[in-house]
Amino acid sequence: MSGKLIVFEGTDGSGKATQARLLCRRLERQGMAFREIDFPRYGAPSAAMVEEYLSGALGKNPGDVNAYAASTFYAIDRYASYKQDWGPFYEGGGLVVANRYTTSNAVHQASKLAQAEREAYLRWLFDFEYRLLGLPAPALVLYLDLPTELSGQMMRQRERQTGTQADIHENNEAYLRACRENARQIARDLGWKVIQCASGGRVRSAEDIEDEVYREIQRLL
């Protein structure tokens, strides 16, 4: 018996972690059993190559590491997480809420490729992770769409609040714009549920977005 996997996706600064956390709090209040997962798993051995990549140790620009190589770094971390952590719960019919997943490779890595090469990459990606590695495909992907200018503001605010520094993705505005354009097309093609996180040039409140998210979730539960 397989469970249900709900994935929050979006470019950097779009509020994925916040919305995943708010959904999990609501599920807790309702007494529902679930597992919350987050990728990449910074600090875990399986995420070492992801951290090397994002730190700039393999190249200062995202394009210095090709889409296929970078995708394998993230996939290894997901595979280890599934085997070590949440796999048995999911296979027993459990509900799993993920902040980022295979879909993040689709958003970030496909944007490095020419338009004519993206379809072949996406076929390879989903076959690699879902069939060859045996990871479950999501039952629902919620794509949080936020204009790049606003997502940049949100990331700078997060850095000030947490004392963290931006990685090579977050520091590259042109790359983030390409990711958003790519993601919006993929969301349409793959049937992801798009949540507009801005209205009238301003970011919607987290609570307002949460209510819309939960209306979508209810159709699955």
Automatic annotation (TrEMBL):
<comment type="function">
    <text>Phosphorylation of dTMP to form dTDP in both de novo and salvage pathways of dTTP synthesis.</text>
</comment>
<keyword id="KW-0545">Nucleotide biosynthesis</keyword>
<dbReference type="Pfam" id="PF02223">
    <property type="entry name" value="Thymidylate_kin"/>
</dbReference>
<comment type="similarity">
    <text>Belongs to the thymidylate kinase family.</text>
</comment>
<keyword id="KW-0067">ATP-binding</keyword>
<feature type="domain" description="Thymidylate kinase-like">
    <location>
        <begin position="8"/>
        <end position="196"/>
    </location>
</feature>
<dbReference type="InterPro" id="IPR018094">
    <property type="entry name" value="Thymidylate_kinase"/>
</dbReference>
<dbReference type="InterPro" id="IPR039430">
    <property type="entry name" value="Thymidylate_kin-like_dom"/>
</dbReference>
<keyword id="KW-0808">Transferase</keyword>
<keyword id="KW-0547">Nucleotide-binding</keyword>
<keyword id="KW-0418">Kinase</keyword>
<dbReference type="GO" id="GO:0016301">
    <property type="term" value="F:kinase activity"/>
</dbReference>
<protein>
    <recommendedName>
        <fullName>Thymidylate kinase</fullName>
        <ecNumber>2.7.4.9</ecNumber>
    </recommendedName>
</protein>
